[in-house]
Amino acid sequence: MRLILIGPPGSGKGTQAKLLSENLRLFHFATGDVLREAIEKDTSEGRKAKPFMTAGQLVPDAIVNEIVAAQFRGSDKPRDFVLDGYPRTIAQAIALDHVLAEQSLGLDAVVFLNGDDEEIVRRLGNRWTCPNTMCNAVYHALFKPAKVAGKCDLCQTPLYQRDDDKPATIRKRLQVFHECHDAILRHYRDQNLLIEVCGSGDIEAIHAKLVNTLRV
Ligand code: ADP
Ligand code: ADP
Ligand code: ZN
């Protein structure tokens, strides 16, 4: 199965993409994770992306499109995947259409995980992330606490709070999302791929609803 998860920051894309990837054996591909890894490794892409990410703005399309194209053109290209956090602009959606057409990979569904802005600010203020780039697990101080406070359940690495999970930057990211999302949703609605799922409620219940909606 080939899926895209679209939604505002904090709507639970990463959390749900991880569950789908485990249960449906999909490759979980999150451009945010790839970009944070590039920054951590201080690559030229990372150096270019960092100021945009810190400011809560989108990284330029050319950089992100190249990351995605390289993944799909490489030797370990995925056939079944869940894309999390990409595409975020119409130019990215069009670039992805080209890359997938070139690889003869059709999408099965695009899920719009909807969320309420105020709940998002509350969620992201309490998000704790595993910095291990092989893991990238995500926790929440109240809703998904780590078993040992401050340590990743999966790899024991100390957790951190993302630089861009500060209230002012969260609001900037939400504004950026609202500016772009209509066009993206229209793009996939026109292709008859769009499914809308409400992102509030229990994490496992949302996962069950997703699996049910995707009828797998
Ligand atoms: P969240 O899951 O909270 O929405 P992400 O990890 O997906 O956050 O993204 C964090 C930041 O990385 C974004 O605010 C943006 O700066 C950058 N980024 C990630 N994906 C993209 C993309 N597809 N296009 C442009 N910038 C991106
Ligand atoms: P996104 O990738 O869309 O930015 P995340 O999956 O990283 O979102 O979730 C943002 C924060 O909210 C994390 O701390 C996560 O543990 C928490 N979270 C995710 N889904 C839910 C939910 N259904 N209820 C409460 N908290 C959630
Ligand atoms: Zn970890």
**Main β-sheet: number of strands, strand sense, barrel status?**
5 strands, parallel
State the low-pLDDT regions, or none.
Answer: none
Q: How many E-type strands?
A: 7
What's the end-to-end separation, in Å?
A: 9 Å
Structure description:
A hairpin with an 8-residue loop joins strand 5 (127-129) and strand 6 (138-140). The radius of gyration is 16 Å and the shape is globular. A five-stranded parallel beta sheet has the order 2-3-1-4-7. Strands 5-6 form a two-stranded antiparallel sheet. Helices cover 48% and strands 14% of the residues. It has 216 residues and is of the alpha/beta class. The chain has helices at 13-24, 31-40, 44-54, 61-73, 90-102, 117-125, 167-190, 203-214; strands at 2-6, 27-30, 81-84, 109-114, 127-129, 138-140, 194-198. It has a single domain, classed as Rossmann fold (3-Layer(aba) Sandwich), CATH 3.40.50. The mean pLDDT is 95. Bound molecules: adenosine-5'-diphosphate (ADP) (2 copies) and zinc ion.
What key attributes describe this structure?
alpha/beta; binds zinc ion; binds adenosine-5'-diphosphate; 7 strands; 216 residues; two-stranded antiparallel ribbon; Rossmann fold; five-stranded parallel β-sheet
Concise account of the structure shown:
This protein has 216 residues and is of the alpha/beta class. 48% of the residues lie in helices and 14% in strands.
